[in-house]
Amino acid sequence: MTLGSDVSRLTTTAASAAAKGLSIVVPLYNEAAGLALLHERLIGLARTLKARYGLACEVVYVDDGSADNTLVIARTLAADALDVQVVSLSRNFGKEAALMAGLDHARLGAILFMDGDGQHPPDMVEKLVSHWVDDGYDVVYTAKAHRDNESFLRRQAVHGFYALINWGARQKIPEDAGDFRLLSPRAAAALRQLPERNRFFKGLSNWIGFRQIRVDYEPAPRAHGVTTFSPGRLIGLSIEGLTSFSVAPLRFASLLGVLLALTAFIFGLTILWEVWTTGKQVPGYPSLMIGLMTIGGVQLIMIGIVGEYIGKILSELKARPIYFVAEHSEKRADGETTAS
Ligand code: UDP
Ligand code: MG
């Protein structure tokens, strides 16, 4: 038995892997308004890819428990030039779970993750595919070219998040990288093999290694509706990403503990020194309170951090499925239809 995993047999050359095709995974949460248009654009894209690379395409729409009629519309979409799968989850499980469901259902070799709100321009896909087929890259990820339209505070928060998650990491997650990315068959296979339940795709698809390349792009404005990621949810997601991906916060906690203990020790020595040399009583109340509150506060924060990790361990241990599929239908471009 080996403890590693050999995914190399999945692709010898990028060109031969391309013969199998590309599965486009699109998570959908209340995207009814723009779905038909997106599908039109994907059909156009599939035609181009077929003509230029001989690449077969399918799209896997994952309805993540939408409250509007996203699912109804998704079911009506035509398998024109590309196969269409519609996977409907039993409730809203969140984007990462929806991506996982798409990854599990994708049948063709390579995977492209793309948002369903039009922010990830289909026009760019050709370029991503070219990096894979022509240049042999395994992970083609996109990153926001700039964040000029975001607030200063948000940019600093993002910066801090990546500084922390990458602290001491061997494989750094590139800042600004998004979920819009293409994975070669072997990279997709590697990603499928990761057993954890708490998933942070950006981090994982970077962690697996292989040949990676960055492509800058300008995200389009949302075609309709508003983002589902409020600042509160983003903070939650950051904690999720951090604790499921890195032990940096724990290391930070230990380091801070050592630092505080050291400060206290030195402080104690200076007090002793003062008493010995001057003989005066040290007036203590304010400094005592400050010390007490600092230590108390820091301890609570650290217990919280440790608690986050224990929570992670609990949810990994329960080993619940990441999602439930309530319905799955499939239309082939050659006319066959199945539903379950
Ligand atoms: N999404 C999802 N489940 C959720 C929230 C979002 O599948 O619980 C999908 C959503 O339909 C979209 C993508 O994830 O296709 C990105 O969502 P959104 O545009 O709200 O995020 P942002 O672009 O602001 O990061
Ligand atoms: Mg969006």
TrEMBL record:
Cellular component GO terms, alphabetically? plasma membrane
Q: Which residues form the Glycosyltransferase 2-like domain?
A: 23-183
Which InterPro entries does the entry link to?
Glyco_trans_2-like, Glycosyltransferase_2, Nucleotide-diphossugar_trans
Keyword Ribosomal protein listed? The answer is no
Membrane spanning segments where? Answer: 252-276, 288-310
**Name of one Pfam family that matches:** Glycos_transf_2
Keywords for the protein's UniProt record, in alphabetical order: Cell membrane, Glycosyltransferase, Membrane, Transferase, Transmembrane, Transmembrane helix
Q: Where in the cell is it found?
A: Cell membrane
GO MF terms here are:
glycosyltransferase activity
Domain of life here?
A: Bacteria
Note the coiled coil stretches, chain numbering: none
Its membrane topology: Multi-pass membrane protein
Give the family per the record. Belongs to the glycosyltransferase 2 family. GtrB subfamily.
Q: Cross-referenced PANTHER family, in alphabetical order?
A: PROPHAGE BACTOPRENOL GLUCOSYL TRANSFERASE HOMOLOG, UNDECAPRENYL-PHOSPHATE 4-DEOXY-4-FORMAMIDO-L-ARABINOSE TRANSFERASE-RELATED
Q: What is this protein called?
A: Bactoprenol glucosyl transferase
Question: Which organism was this protein described from?
Answer: Bradyrhizobium jicamae
